[in-house]
Design a protein that fits this description.
Family: Belongs to the glycosyl hydrolase 51 family.
Strand order of the largest sheet: 3-4-7-8-9-10-11-12
Organism: Streptomyces phaeoluteigriseus
Number of strands: 25
Catalytic activity: Hydrolysis of terminal non-reducing alpha-L-arabinofuranoside residues in alpha-L-arabinosides
CATH architecture of the largest domain: Alpha-Beta Barrel
CATH topology of the largest domain: TIM Barrel
Pfam family, one: ASD1_dom
Structural class: alpha/beta
Oligomer: single chain
Bound molecules: alpha-L-arabinofuranose
Enzyme class: hydrolase
CATH class of the largest domain: Alpha Beta
Length: about 500
């Protein structure tokens, strides 16, 4: 195999990593909330019903912003059902996931969950623009954020939350372009309601940061036209536009699946181009940033099969939905998606791994039982830990391979982040299923001379997974033989591997 190469130079950078790039997502969907983060009566549950074993893993994962309460769920969400004494909250039909929502976990419990994670956790709250509108968004904002002395802020205090929640980051609805969305809208209809909601929310508090809904996928027929129309209406009123993308191997096309980040990078670049086009049309100096607030590997086609039978069931509470069990190969693709986000840190200001627990998640739980790490847990935890600082511009010279969907793709996908103390971490994926990839990185200008660690996630069996019965089958291992000599880092990347190479 030909050696892959790139050069790192501190003079050539992409941008600073926003800590919000390591966000996640808790939706009222399946067992993400109930028996996921919240399970009163579980052996590890605290007085609020929050599972400590899950909280420990969430901290270890290193998540920052946590989007809530949906997702598709938000388009039927009545925030007032989710506050006040838990025993008197109403049970509701959740049309999005054909379930019964008990509202035992609500806004106050979500905020308590964030506080327990620690100061790195930030709320990212969505308002319902599917079945509701400006008035309800304003009421929720007042309940959550107004200090005191009004009906809704005093109501919050009477519910036990004297201090305002201080929610700064808000999503204006969810996937409003999708026909599956309750209250789905055309771009013009959504642009109008998003603009009016944004204007009113800013009247209440000019300091809020707002995310307008972009397309729910790059493959949507309305993609790009949707963004342009929505931004034309909202450009001066919002800060971010959302992107959502999920990947799976379709029709057995594993080679294209391994290159999923090619699609993710083109999606980001196309949305940036669309934002800037609208900005130019409006003669605006302002730049709209990207909130990639749903991304992951998701075996969605399996869920679509399940959905047909599921919809006939009897509105269950917290059913097992979307509980994908991830392989080593999935984790390598997942790592490559993280690399794609980091490579665009100049414009991707927020990103949320969908989701956090049980539902297409890095953390799994068993009701009344254990919590464990999926394979995807490891790349996320490592990227969140070592991917803080300034992203360096990485242009790879790599051997390539052929894919059905994306044509010729690089076998090497990489990025590098320089921390404030000058240490540098290279994140790299070898997409080859069969061959190790020799790598040379010129690091002369960086002032690093020492390898701290080369860690890799790879396995002789790319289908290996962690399960309830074998929760520690897969974990990263240390790679020998990597060195920095005379200004060059040399390493060998195992076939189908995610790599973290730390230099000091
Ligand atoms: O994350 C699962 C679902 O995927 C979300 O509810 C929705 O926004 C998206 O389609």
């Amino acid at each position: 195999m030909r050696t892959a190469r790139f050069t790192l130079d501190p003079a050539f950078t992409v941008g600073q990593v926003n800590p919000r790039l390591f966000g996640s997502f808790v939706e009222h969907l399946g067992r993400c909330v109930y028996t996921g983060v919240y399970e009163p009566g579980h052996a590890t549950a605290d007085e609020a019903g929050l599972r400590q074993d899950v909280l420990d893993l969430v901290r270890e994962l290193g998540v920052t912003a946590i989007r809530y309460p949906g997702g598709n769920f938000v388009s039927g969400y009545k925030w007032e059902d989710s506050v006040g004494p838990a025993e008197s909250r109403p049970r509701r039909l959740d049309l999005a996931w054909h379930s019964t929502e008990t509202n035992r976990f609500g806004l106050s419990e979500y905020m308590a969950f964030l506080r327990k994670i620690g100061p790195q956790a930030e709320p990212m709250m969505a308002v319902n623009l599917g079945t509701r509108g400006v008035a309800e968004a304003l009421e929720l904002q007042e309940y959550a954020n107004h200090p005191s002395g009004t009906a809704l802020s005093d109501l919050r205090a009477s519910h036990g939350d004297k201090d305002p929640f201080g929610i700064r980051l808000w999503c204006l609805g969810n996937e409003m372009d999708g026909p599956w969305q309750t209250g789905h809208k055309t771009a013009r209809e959504y642009g109008r309601i998003a603009a009016e909601t944004a204007r009113a929310m800013r009247q209440q508090d000019p300091g809020v940061e707002l995310v307008a809904c972009g397309s729910s996928a790059q493959s949507m027929p309305t993609f790009a036209e949707w963004e342009a129309t929505v931004l034309q209406e909202t450009y001066d009123l919002v800060d971010h536009i959302s992107l959502h993308a999920y990947y799976e191997p379709l029709d057995g096309d594993v080679d294209s699946f391994l290159a999923s980040a090619v699609d993710m990078e083109s999606f980001i670049e196309n949305v940036v181009a669309t934002c800037d086009h609208v900005g130019a049309r409006l003669k605006s100096q302002k730049k709209i940033n990207l909130s990639f607030d749903e991304w992951n590997v998701w075996y969605m086609s399996r869920w679509q099969e399940q959905a047909t039978t599921f919809a006939q069931d009897d509105w269950p509470e917290a059913p097992r939905l979307l509980e994908d069990n991830y392989s080593v190969m999935d984790a390598v693709v997942f790592g490559s998606l993280l690399i794609a986000l980091l490579r665009h840190a100049d414009r991707v200001a927020v990103a949320c791994l969908a989701q956090l627990v049980n539902v297409i998640a890095p953390i799994m739980t068993e009701p009344g039982g254990a919590a464990w790490r999926q394979t995807t847990f490891f790349p996320f935890a490592q990227a969140s830990r070592y991917g803080r600082g300034e992203v360096l511009d990485v242009r790879v010279d790599s051997p390539t391979y052929e894919t059905r969907k994306y044509g010729e793709a690089d076998l090497l996908h990489a990025t590098a982040v320089r921390a404030q103390d000058g240490s540098v971490t290279v994140f790299a994926v070898n997409r080859s299923r069969t061959e190790a990839l020799p790598l040379d990185v010129a690091v002369t200008g960086l002032g690093v001379s020492r390898l701290v660690e080369h860690s890799a996630l790879a396995d002789a069996d790319p289908d290996a997974r962690n399960t309830l019965d074998d929760p520690e089958r897969v974990a990263p291992h240390t790679v020998d033989g990597t060195a920095v000599t005379d200004g060059t880092l040399t390493a060998t990347l195992e076939p189908l591997s995610w790599n973290v190479i730390r230099l000091a």
